[in-house]
Each structure stands twice: as C-alpha cells, then as structure tokens.
Amino acid sequence: MPTRLESLRGNIRPWMWGVAGGTMLILSAICTPNLQRAWAPRVGPPFERAYSMAPQAAVSSSKLGIATASAPPAARSGEDAVADRKMVRTIAIEMTVANPIDAARAIQAFAAGLGGYVESSELSTENAPSASVTLRVPAARLDEAESGLRKMAIRVDSEKTGAQDVTKQYADMDARLRNLRAEEAQYLEIMKNASQVKDMLEVSEKLSGVRGEIEQQQTEFRTLSKQVETVAITIGLRAPANMDAFRFDWHPLDQLKLATRDALDGLADYAGTMTAVILYLPVVLLWAMTGVAAVWIGWRVLRWVGRAFFGWHRAPAVQ
Q: pTM for the full model?
C-alpha cells in the first residue's frame, strides 16, 4: 500500500491541484445560496416580515367575514324591496261549466266568502247560455280563489295573467298627500295668527282649495290601494257544445197550426178595427158638422162686423 500511495503522489501534477480547488469553489458558491434560502424562514428579517403580516392577514380575513355576514341583510333588503312593490294584477279565465247561469251565481257567493266582491256580471240566455263575471278578491287569497274556480269548471279553456307595477305612482300619490296635509297644517297655523279679516279670508280660500285637493287625492289613493290589495278576476262562462243543435228539425204540421192561429188572430184584429170604425163614424160626422157650422157662423159674424163698423159694401155688379 505505501508503495501505491507514493506512486500516486508522484504522478499528481500541480495543475491538478488547481482544477480540484476551482471545482470546490464552484460547488461552494452553488450550495451556499440554497442553504441560505432553506434556513431563511427560521431566522432573520424574512421570518419577521412573515410574522408581522400574519395579523394583517387575520384582520383582512375578519373584515371579509364581516362583509360576508353583512351580505344577508343586503339580500334581505333586496327581498324587502321586491315585497314592497305595488302591483295591480288581473286574471282572465275562460271556463266551460254545466250551467253558466248557476255557475255565475255560485261564483258571486264564492267571492263573498273569500272577502271579495263582484264588480260586474252579465248573463245571456240567447241561443247558448253564457255569462261573464268580474270579481275582486284579496291578493293574499288568490291561490284559494283560483283553486275554487277550477273546481267549478268542467274544463278551463284559457287563462291569462297580467300585472302592472304602480310602485312609483303609489309613492308619488302618497308623497303628494303628505305634502298637501302639511300645507293644510301651515294654513291652519297662519289662520290662527291672522289678525286682519282680509288675511283670514285669503288664507281660508287657499285652505279650501288645499282641502279639495286632499279629498281628490285621498279618493284616487284609496282606489289605487284597493287595486293593489285585490286581484281582478274576469271569468267567462259557457256551456258545453250541444251536438243536437246541428240536427235538422222541421215539423210542417206545427208550422201549419202556427200559421192558422196567426191568420185567425189577424181576422179578429180586422173585425175589431172595422167594428170600432163603424161605431165611431157617427161621432166623427157630428164633429165634422160642428166644425163646418162653426166656420160658417164665424164667417157670417165677420162679414156683419165688417159692414157695420168698417164700411164693407158689396161690389156693384158690372153691366
């Protein structure tokens, strides 16, 4: 062994020591930054920065938590806004029922039972019986009303629903009414402090005008509120199609009997009319003679007055 080591040492050249030293320096330069990065989180400023940012992250997460917790109220406020919308809803239903007249009367009683009322009703018995009923029911009981109406029908032929958003109109009318009432209160206060008759009369006139506007606005507001709180349902009722209507039905004997009866009625009317004329003929003659006599007497009197007072003379005869 010693001989081998000595032989190896004898074979090493100086340049080999330089190559080995340079290689070691390169490896140390590569490995040292990696070791620093591996140990950096454990000590030194980088760890301090990470630690100092941890509370901020916790605070920001808490803020996010608060925002998330406050999101449901925002959602609830949106739902409240939808719930506060003022809608005027209408429904039109066409139904086939066994007897439209009876069904119309049943619907009127049904509406009263729901706390509603009938706005209009039209019944027709010409040709095929039919009916049309318009009623108003509370909006809260609309589902119950539709279910009850469907039970009365043999079938529902058509149904149409409409809705109109009157939220802005409702709010404007409410605000207008509040402003008018505030204006009325101001005029009442001014009238209390008025000392001259002229001022009192002027304020009284303006107060009367404001109160008239308040009454008109209240009427319109109540009407709109009633339309919002209730749903108008227009129901068309008709009977099932009757196939016997297309059957050819002709009874000549019955037609002959009807024609004979009409002819006898005509003869009876003619006989009665002629009898009345004959009986009234003397009366008519007497009235005619009386009229002629009155005209003749009047003419004689007129000629006598003219000759006596105005010098009327008969014209001389021409020779």
A: 0.44
